[in-house]
Amino acid sequence: MQTHYDAELKDTVRYLGKTLGETIKNQLGQEWLDRIEKIRKGGRASYQGDAACSEELKETFKTMSDSDLLTVGRAFAQFLNLGNIAEQEYNAAMNVDASIDALFKHLDKAELTADKVQDAVAKLNIDLVLTAHPTEVTRRTLIHKHKELADCLQAVHQASLSDVERKKIETRIADLIAQAWHTEEIRSVRPTPVDEARWGFSVIENSLWEAVPDFMRELDGRLNEDYDVSLPLDASPVQFSSWMGGDRDGNPFVTSKVTEQVLLLARKRAAKLFAIDLDRLQVELSMYDCNEELREKVGDAIEPYRALLRPLVNKFIATRDGISDYLAGKNPDTSNWIESDDELIEPLMLCYQSLLDCGMQVVANGLLLDTIRRARVFGIHLLRLDVRQDSERHADVFSELTRYLGLGDYAQWSEADKQAFLLRELGSKRPLFPAQWDASDDVKEVLDTCKVIAKHSKHGFGIYIISMASEPSDVLAVQLLLQESGVDWPMPVAPLFETLDDLNNSPDVMRKLLSIDWYRGYVKGRQFVMIGYSDSAKDAGALAAGWAQYQSQEALVAIADEFDVSLTLFHGRGGTIGRGGLPAHAAIYSQPPGSLDGGFRVTEQGETIRYKFGMPKLAKRSLGIYASAIIEAMLFPPPAPKEEWRELITAMAAQGRDNYRATVRHDEEFVPYFRVATPEQELGKLPLGSRPAKRKPQGGIESLRAIPWIFAWAQTRLVLPSWLGVMRAIDSVKTPENEKVVNEMFSEWPFYRSRLSMLDMVFHKADPRISEAYDERLVPKELKHFGEALRSELKESISSLLAITGDDDIMKNDPQGKESMEIRAAYLQPLHYLQIELLDRIRKAGDESQNTSLERAMMVTIAGIAIGMRNTG
Predict the structure, then answer these.
(1) What family name appears in the similarity comment (predicted)?
(2) Is 781 annotated as catalytic?
(3) What is d(CA 178, CA 149) in angstroms, rounded to the nearest whole number?
(4) Taking residues 648-665, what's their average pLDDT?
C-alpha cells in the first residue's frame, strides 16, 4: 500500500529527475539521456533482486570509456542530491510542530501542575556544537543552489499559485538544476578551517537566525495556552557553540592565528545580522509614547525608540566594518565597537518595558521580542568557540619547560609528582615561564592559543576540551597553561574520555579531580565532561561502547551529586550509528536518569547540520524534537536498569567486545581485506574536511580516524562497524533461562531498546549483495572467504534481530524511513557498480596513472554514495 508520503515525495523526485534529464539531453543529446534512463531502470530492477540486471549493469560499465563513466557518475550523484532536497523540503513542510504537539499531549495526559512544567522548562539547556571535522562532501556553492531549489519547491507546492506564477518557479527550478549540472561537484582543494567556520556562520544566518525565535515563540505560545506558563524573557533554552576553527586535535591547520581569525569573523557576522535587525526595528518603532525610564535616556526626542536604537545600529556597523579593516591588516579605531551582550540587551529591554508600560504589548511582542531572543541565544559573538587539544601537547609544554629549568622531565614523573607541581604553580603568584625561554614551535603554538583566549572576551568561548585525558594532571595542566597566559576567568575545562578503557576509568579520574580542594574552588560548582562515541565504538564495537558510555555517565552523575557539582555531559556523537548517532528523541531518552539535569550538550556534525538545520522550518522542527525529548526525559525519566538487566547487558557487552576485536584487531587477514574490499585508500584523495584522514600519517588502521573508518564501510554497504559482533553477543546470552529477562529489557528499558532500533536502521542501509559485488571484482581469491564470513554474520544478525522484535521485515516501525531509502535505491545501485569498475581500473593502472577522468569519476561516486546513504562519517 502506497502512503501519502510515498506518493507525494515520489512525484517530486520524478519531477526533479525529469528536469535534470532535460538538462542532460540539452547538453549531451537524446542518446545519452536514453542510456542513463536505461541504467536507472536497471538499477531499480537490480535493487529488487533481478540478478540478470545486476550483471547487465556491470557489463555496461566495463565497456564504457573513462570519461563516459564520469558522465554517468555525475548524473546519478545529481539525481541523489535532488532526491535528498525533495525529501528535506517535504519534511520541512510536514509536521513542523509535531514534536511539540506530541510533548503537550503527553504532559496533558500526565496531568502535571504548572509549577512542574515551569521548572522543567527553566532547566531546558540545549547546547548544539557545530563541528565540521566529520566530512561534508557537498561543495558550499552547490549547497547554496540546493537551498534555493528547496525554497522553489516550497513555493511550487502552494495550491494558490496562478499558472503564470507556477511557470516562473518551474523555470527557476530548471535554471538551478542546470547550474548544478554545469558546476564542478568535487572541490579541487580541501576547505580550510576558516572556510568551514564561515559555512557554520552561514547556517546560522540563513536558517537558525529565523528558526530560533520561531521555535521559542511556538514553545512559549503552547506553554501559555496549556499551563498559563511563560518562557522567561532572559531564557536561552538553546545555544550554539562551534569546533570550527577551535578543534586542533590532529589538525595542523588549526593554529592560534586561525582561532583568532574565526573569533573575529563570528563577531563580524553577528554585527552584520544585528545591524540589519536593529535597523528594521528603528524603522518600525516610530511611536512617541514612552515610559519615564526611556525618556531619561533620550531626552526630549520626538521618536524616543528610534533615538535609542539609531546609535546602537551605528555601533554594530562600526564593529562589522572595523573587524573587516583589522583582518585586512589596517589599524581601525575600536572605541565604537560593541563589546558586550549587555550593550545590546539593555536598550532592547528598555524599549520592551516602555512599550508594555504604554499599552503597546502587541508591538513589544513582535519583532522586538524576536531580536531580544536572538540577543540572548546568539549574543554579539554569534556562537561560542570551543578549543580542543590532545593531552600530550600540553604535557610536552611542561616537559620542555622542566628540562629547561633543570627540574627533570615532567613526562617521566609520577602522577602524584605532576599534581604536586601543577597545584604548587597554580597557587604561586610569580610567573612560571621564563622571559628568555626559546620554546619549540609546537610548544609556542600551544602557548599562543592560550594567549588568544586571554586576549578575547570570555563570552566568545565555550569550553576547553582535552582529548585522550586519562589523569587529573591532564586537566590541571590546562588550567595552569591558561593562568600563566593571562586568562583571568575560570574557563571550563572538560576531559574527553574516548576509548573503552578511558570510559571505564573516567569515574576514578573525576573522583580524584573533585577531591582536590583547589580544583573544586576553580570550577565553582560546574563541571563539563565529554563522552566520546566514535573512538570507543571503533575500539570495542557498538554494544560494548554503548554500555561503557551508559555506565560512565551513570557513575559520573553519582560523583557529581556526591561533590554537589552540576555536571554537564557533552556527547561527542557523529551522524552515523557507528559514531554514536541515533534519532534525537531515542538518543536523549535512552540516557541514564539524572544525566540531563546539568543540560544537554552534543556535537552536530558536517552533513547532519544541513539535514537537521539547513532550512528554517527543518531547524525549527529539529529544535522542537530536542526540546520535547529533554523536557519529557526530565519529567518522565527512564527507569534505572534492574540488577538482572545489568548482569545480562554486561555479559552481552563483554562478548560483543571480544567478537568485534577478534575480527578487527586479532585476525591477521582483516587489514588486508579492509584495504582491498573498500575504497579506504582512495578516500584519502578526496578533499573533504580540513583534517587529515589519519591522526598519524604513517599509522595503520589504529590511527585511522573514526570518520573515514565508517565512511569506507558505508561505501560498500557492509556498514560493518555498526553491527559487527552485536547480535551474536546478544544471542549468546539469550538462553532459555534468560529469555524472560531479555524480553523484559526490550519492552521496559529505553537504553536496550534503542540499541536494537539502531541496528534495525543499520540493517536497512546494509546490502550484502552490494558488498559481495565489491569482493567479487576487487578481493583476491585467498581473501574472498573473509567477506563471505562477514556477510554470513550480517544475514544471521538480521534474522536474530527480527526474532527479538517479532517483525517480519526490517524498519517495520519506521515506514517513512524505509520508503526514504527505497526512493534513492534506483540511483544508488548503479553508483556502486560504477565505483567497483573504477576501483578496478585505478588499481590496475597503479600509482603511475595520471588519468584525471578516472580519479574524478571515483571522487564523484564516493560523494554520490555518501549523499545517497545520507551520511559520510
Answers:
(1) Belongs to the PEPCase type 1 family.
(2) no
(3) 11
(4) 96
Could you say which DSSP state residue 577 is in? G
Fill in the DSSP letter of residue 368.
I
Give buried/exposed letters for 518-555 (b at 16+ CB in 10 A, else e).
ebbebbeeebbbbbbbbbbbbbbbbbbbbbbbbbbbbb
CA–CA separation, 245 and 194 (whole Å): 6
The CA R_g of the chain, rounded to the nearest whole Å, is 28
The residue ranking higher by pLDDT, 350 or 140, is 350
- Across the strands, what pairs with 127? 239, 601
Q: Which residues contact 231 (CB under 8 A, 6 or more apart)?
A: 121, 216, 219, 220, 223, 237
**Sequence-ordered list of residues with C-beta below 8 angstroms from that of 702, at least 6 positions apart, any chain:** none
Maximum CA extent, the chain: 90
At residue 113, φ and ψ (nearest 5 deg) are: -80, 160
Inter-helix orientation angle 114-123/616-635, to 10°: 120
Query: What SS3 class is residue 8?
Result: helix
E runs forming strands in 403-469: 461-467
Q: What is residue 12's three-state secondary structure?
A: helix
- pLDDT at residue 609 in the model: 85
Query: How far apart (Å, rounded) are the C-alpha atoms in residues 129 and 846?
Result: 41
Rounded Cα distance, 188 and 209, in Å: 31
Q: Is the dihedral of CA 397, 403, 407, 412 positive or negative?
A: positive
- Alpha-carbon distance of 869 to 805, in angstroms, equals 24
d(CA 689, CA 703): 17
Single-letter amino acid code for the residue at 201: F
pTM: 0.91
Which of 147, 871, 848 lies closest to 578 in space, CA to CA?
A: 871
* Lookup: cell for 262: 574565526
Identify the sign of the CA torsion 796, 797, 801, 802: negative
Amino acid letter at 811? M
Q: Which of 203, 325, 191 is nearest to 264 (CA)?
A: 325
Contact 613, 604 (CB under 8 A): yes
Q: How far apart are CA 63 and CA 669, in angstroms?
A: 33
Torsion of CA 468, 474, 479, 483, to 10 degrees: -110
Integer Cα distance of 264 and 682 in angstroms: 36
- Per-residue pLDDT at 109 exceeds 80: no
Catalytic site residue from 146, 315, 538, 620: 538
Q: What percent of the chain is predicted at pLDDT more than 70? A: 92
Contact 273, 380 (CB under 8 A): no
The answer to whether residue 1 scores a pLDDT higher than 50 is no
Chain-centroid distance of CA 580 in Å reads: 11
Q: Which of 691, 671, 622 is nearest to 100 (CA)?
A: 622
Q: How far is CA 253 from CA 258, 266, 389, 574, in A?
A: 8, 19, 13, 22
pLDDT at 89: 79
Q: Retrieve residue 394's grid coordinates.
A: 600540553
pLDDT of residue 686: 64
b/e code 113-148 from CB counts within 10 Å (16+ = b):
eeeebbebbeebbbbbbbbbbbbbbbbeebbebbbb
Q: Which three cell numbers stand for residue 755?
A: 540499541
Weakest-pLDDT range from 387-401, 502-516, 640-654, 816-830: 816-830
C-alpha span between 832 and 465 (Å, rounded): 39
DSSP line for 50-106: -HHHHHHHHHHHHTS-HHHHHHHHHHHHHHHHHHHHHHHHHHHHS-TTHHHHHHHHH
What is the reported pLDDT for 138? 60
Which amino acid makes up residue 207?
S
Instruction: Give the separation between CA 258 and CA 404, rounded to whole angstroms.
Output: 29
Specify whether 268 is catalytic.
no
The answer to whether 398 and 433 have CB atoms below 8 angstroms apart is: no
pLDDT 10s digits, 5-26: 567 888 899 999 999 999 999 9
